Amino acid sequence: MKHTFISLYAAAALLLLSLTAAPVAVAASADEEDTPQTEHDAYLIGGIYYLLDDETMTAAVTFENYYEDKSGELIYNADEPYEGDIVVPATVEHGGQTYDVTAIGPAAFAQSYNVTSVSLPESITSIGKFAFYYCESLASLTLPETVTSIGKGAFEVCMSLESINIPKGITVIEPWTFGHCYALPHVDIPEGVTAIGDNAFYGCCVMPSIVIPEGITTIEPWTFAHCEMLTDITLPTHLESIGECAFAYCDILPTINFPSTLTTLGKGAFGSCLALDDVTLPAGMTVLDDHTFYGCESLTHIAIPESVGYVGVCAFYGCLALPEVQLPAGLTTINDHTFYGCFSLPGIQLPAGITSIGEQAFACCAQLKTIDLPAGVESIGKSAFANCVSLTSIVSRPIVPPTCAAQVFVEVDEDVCKVFAPEASLEAYRTAYGWRDFYQFEPLEHMTDGVQTPTLPTQAAAETYDLFGRHHSAALGGVAIERTATGQARKVLKF
Prior knowledge:
CATH superfamily of the domain at 1-207: Ribonuclease Inhibitor
CATH topology of the domain at 1-207: Leucine-rich repeat, LRR (right-handed beta-alpha superhelix)
Helix content: under 10%
Strand content: 25-35%
């Protein structure tokens, strides 16, 4: 199911292509367009093209051959992009009239690969969508505090950008605004910002920390994905939801503190955060979505609140270091691939209400030694315990043997692994598909709290047994069963 998560990433990649392609698409020559177009007169003044508004006496920086199709989408010919050091003046003169330069228009400097610097006047109030898209040589930019709006993708793929400010009047950071700004180490987000669009900081791979303003209640999908050097995130105290893959592939993020108001984690929200090792989910959460902690191979502790009633597909897929997990009592299903490849998981207590176990739910849990199936389990999916090569004990409490799909216990040593089932149902287990391949069946009634009570020898000397009733001459560490000198058996913790 690894490919399922990759498909999420691929879907985002398609979204990336659709958005980042916008300036490329609009770069087509006007005579290649099939749709009717409205041509705007772009005037070249002092080496810069402007759109002039005679009603407001304002000017917007643009590019040669500016068009809009009937839907309002931008079309332009970028045969002669800007280059070098650009100084935008506060006013321009044309036809004996003076115009205030108030805007950097949509895609004004898009794909101007050789622009190295841009100086903006205090008269600028808006930066249009894709305004500086793919200005790959632009290293720094100071935006005037008069700017109150920045369009989507405005600085996308400014791959050399190392310094930029966000003016205090900005309240919305649009999608893809700083996407793929590979060299950008730090951005101060003003407290007045109340919304951050999807992919806004996607791929800001040298950014070590981010403080998200208090006005934010939702982090949109993929907002900080692939911020590979991110180690410190400060979330707002009233945050309610984190979107799909919002922090996916933040490779060295060690931990995160969630506010108590958080109720939703989207699919793959922290997928492939390779260093994430300690997570405590807030009490108000009800859903742990698909792929949430997929591939978090360093995760050693996860606290899931009792309020969670659903744990999604591949939620802990590939969490190699996870030694234990306490599942909420309200769960009824273990979904497909939920704990696939949790190599360090020695055992797990399934909630009493579980009725089904999905496909490959515990596959490749190589250290899994025992599993206790609650009485309500009715079905077990394909390869649910495949390659659980250390499995030596299955406690199955259902009166009717759970229906097994194909290869449920493939690669489990069926000669060694014991099945403990209700005594009245042992024959049914011995003949049921998926169960009949085991050789050792024992009555469940010989179990006490999931531990077999061994038949102890009569000798007076104290003896030690493991939890499966096997005699050990050497001292055991951990929980064991000891026969006292008086012949009584008791569970003890040995060090």
